[in-house]
Amino acid sequence: xxxxxxxxxxxGALRGSLQQDSGAQASMMAVDNAxxxxxxxxxxxxxxxSQFNRAPQAQxxxxxxxxxxxxxTAIEAGRSLAISSWMGRLHxxxxxxxxxx
Length: 101
Hints:
Layout: E1 4-8, E2 14-18, E3 28-31, E4 38-42, H1 54-57, H2 67-76, H3 86-94
Antiparallel strand pairs: 1-2, 3-4
């Protein structure tokens, strides 16, 4: 879980900061699916702390990167994405989220 504090600064812009700094690093890349154009790329939290650009340089498993395609195909085919595993149900109970029957 990430706690973000958003503040308004003098010129009307917004500034965000982490409430709890875990030191974790991450990356994000937004790509236009139609054109392949890179819309945004973030390679870490602070270049002064680490010059390693995680967006293009990190080697990682494909894992969740293909899930949107799988889920979209399933939804278009009329499949339900209901939670069926007991671990998923346990997690939802901890979050006090209504669990589908």
